[in-house]
Here is the input.
Amino acid sequence: MSAGRNCIRRFGALLLCLAAVITLLSPCRLRAAAAEPGPAWGSRAEPLRLSSAPSAGPHARITMMDFVRDNWIRILLDVVVLSVMLVFLLVQRSKAKRIAEERQALIAATERDPVTGLYNQGFFFVYANQYYREHPGEALEAIMLNIDNFHGVNALYGWDFGNTVLRLLGGAVKAHLNGGAGIAGRMEADSFVIYGPHKKDYEAALNEFQQELNRFNSSVRVRMGVVPATKGVDPTQMFERARSACGMARKQFRPHMIVFDEKMHRRELFERRLLSDLDRAVKEGQLHVYYQPKYAIQSEPPKLVSAEALIRWQHPDFGMISPGDFIPLLERSGRIGVVDRYVWHEAARQIAAWRKTHGVVIPVSVNLSRIDIFDPGLLETFEQIVSSNGLARAALKLEVTESAYTENADQVIGVVNSLRQMGYEIEMDDFGSGYSSLNMLSTLPIDVLKMDQGFVKKIGHNAMDDRVVGLILDIARNLKVPVVAEGVENQNQLMFLRDLGCAYVQGFYFSKPIPAAEFEKLAFCGT
Here is the structure.
C-alpha cells in the first residue's frame, strides 16, 4: 500500500512538472511558430494548427488558449503517452524495490537462528570479522556461554522445554548488548557467543545470565568462557580460545567461569602442535595400541577372555602423551577418526597375528565415536578390515559411548543396528554416566553394557552407592545383556561384583593397558 501511494505521489509531481514546462516554453514556441513557415513545434506527420483568427502582423502574440484550442487532441495524446511511460517506469521501480526488499528479508531470515533471533554460526563470524576489520584500534573481547548438559535437559524434559531455555538465554544475551556496540550469535545446539567492547564485570554478567534461567528453572546451569581483548587476534582465534575456556569451566561448579590466560595460551599452543603432528605420528609409528585384558569373573580362577584396544602417543619432543591430553582434543577438532581407524586396522592385524601364532582368537573391543558413526563409508571400512585379516566379525567388538546415543539418536541407532545385523557386537561404553540410560535403554541396539568406572570406585563407601551398582546389574540381567565393570582396582570390588552376578571386569587389579607383546605373554603364557 505504501509503495502504491508513493507511486501516485511521484506521478502527480511529474505531471505538474510537465505542465509547468509546457507553460514556460509555449509563448516563445508560439511566437516562433507564427513568425516562421513550415511545421510548428510538436509536429509529427502534420504541423500543429494555429488559430485561424485574423493576424495582426508578424509580431502578433498567440495566446496559450489559442494553441491549446487548436491542438488539444495532439497535446492530450502526448500527455497520455508520457503518462503511460512514467507510470510504467514507476511501476518497474516499485517492483524492483519490492524484490530487493523481499531478497533482503530472505537474507535476514537465513542469517538468524529461528529459536533465539540471534545470528547463526556462519553469519556471526562473517559479521564478527567485518566488525574486527572496521574497528582496528578498538579493544574487543570474546565471550562464549554454554548450557550444562543440554542433551540431558532435552532428554529429561523434552524439546519444548529446551527451546524455552534457549530463548531465555538468547534474550539475556541481547539484553547484555543493550543496543550498544557488538554482536551476538548462537552456535550449535547450546552455545552462545558475544563479540564486542567490554561492557561489565564478568561475574556480574554471568550472574545475570544465570538469574534469567533461574526464573524458569533453577536446575539449568550456564557456564562462561571469556577471552579479554587481545591485540592482533581475530574473532575466529578468540572464539577457539573462548571455547577452550568454557570447556574448562565444565569441571568446576563455582564460579562456573574461566577467563583465558597465559597458561591456557601455552596449552593452546601445545594442542595446535599435536594437531599439526597427528598425520606424521601415524606415518612414523608414534602411535601405539595397548591392550587391557577383560576377565570373566564367574569362573574360578577368573579367565582372560578378551581385551580393549587403547591408544598411546610416543611423541618425539613431548614423550609419552596421556590420552587425556589428546583424545578430547581430537574429538573436539573432528580428527578422532584418524586415530580410530588406525586402532581398528592395528587391532584386527594383531588379532590375526595371535590366531596364526597360537591358534586362538581373542576378541578385541575398539572405540566407535560419534564422528565415525556419521561416516557414510563406515560399514564398508569395517568389512574391508575384517576381510583383509580373515576375521569373523565378532572378533572386533565395537564400543559406542552412551552419550553418542543422545544426539541424532535415530541415525545412531540405525547405523548400529546395521552393524549388528552384519554380525558385529556392540558394547555401550560408560553406561550410567549420562541421562538417557533408563528411558532409552530398552530401544537401544546393544549386546554388552560397560559400567562406568565411577560407580565401581564407590563400591564399599556407603550402602546407597552399593545399591546403585546392584540396580545397574539388575537392569542388565532383565535385559539379558552381560555387564563389563571398568576400573576394578581391589579384591573387595571384585568380590562384590562377582557376588551380584557381574560377568566381566577390567582394571588395574588384573592389569593396566599393556603393549601387544606383554599382553601376548599374559594371555598365552600366563606370565
